[in-house]
Amino acid sequence: MGALPYAHVDTSLRALAGQAEGFGRFAIGGLHGPVYYVTSLADDGPGSLREACHIREPLWIVFEVSGTIHLSSYLRVSSYKTIDGRGQRIKLTGKGLQLKECEHVIVCDLEFEGGRGHDVDGIQIKPKSRHIWIDRCSLQDYDDGLIDITRESTDITVSRCRFANHDKTMLIGADKSHVTDRCIRVTIHHCFFDGTRQRQPRLRFGKVHLYNNYTRNWSIYAVCASVEAQILSQCNIYEAGQKKLVFRYMPEKAADREEVKAGWIRSEGDMFLNGTQLGLLDAGAQSVFDPSEHYPPWTVEPASLALKEVLQLCTGWQAIPRPNDC
Questions:
Q1: Marked catalytic residue, from 199, 202, 204, 216
Q2: Residue 283: CB partners within 8 Å, gap ≥ 6?
Q3: Which Pfam family would be a valid example here (predicted)?
Q4: pLDDT reading at 267 higher than 90
Q5: Residue 121 to residues 18, 50, 217: CA-CA distances in angstroms?
Q6: What is the percent of the chain where pLDDT is above 70?
Q7: Is 199 annotated in the active site?
Q8: Is the pTM of this model over 0.90?
């Protein structure tokens, strides 16, 4: 086992800022703002998370209480915010977070469960949001997606998260008409997809780097490349249940093109367990981007059974003491 990433980010409160690996590496959240203490589990009002997220200035948001926040509507997060759940156990339910036309947002160590309603995602990132880092969150059982990234939102990292009890897990790229989603760039690493049915992720148009994730017991497919998608799957662990197909291609016609085409997937060093069927197409795999041309070296180790065990323990919400602000 090599070293897992981010060993240093819990040494002080703001050590998270600017430390994501991959495309979201520039996300600083509320680094340059004061600490806001959430003292109420109410949906709105003084001391609430919603009040903090609506403030226009940079904030590093922490919690003085543990418990469940029942959201009656999407909670829109403004730019330069860190929502830092370390030190408490906070669960959001009813609706989710909406990152709309914002930048530099970090969401860390929260739980999301039981979102209800049309188009209700756990974390909805659209449109035109950038420099986002989602770290160590547990997400399950929403009526739409758990994390959806669409409509020109880009430069995003999702790390050490746990996804469970869900169908359409993660959509990246809105639909075949949104050709401007060609700008989308997302890194997903050290995550655990535990029995989610599909979309781990499904990608249109953009670039996604998957590394050191563990995906098991999907019901349709694990990873899907739709129109013009570029997916690099590096040193991940795929363990099939009844459904064996790992990689799926879904051809579509981009609104500004004449031909119908799917995207491309390149698999490097992945581990396939329990009779998985790759479903990979060799044609076009060389067209997949090289992450080293976009960002510095990342913390990746060979896929192994030891890594599989670690990811089951170290993903999602963690009982971490809140670091001092020093």
A1: 199
A2: none
A3: Pectate_lyase_4
A4: yes
A5: 26, 17, 22
A6: 99
A7: yes
A8: yes
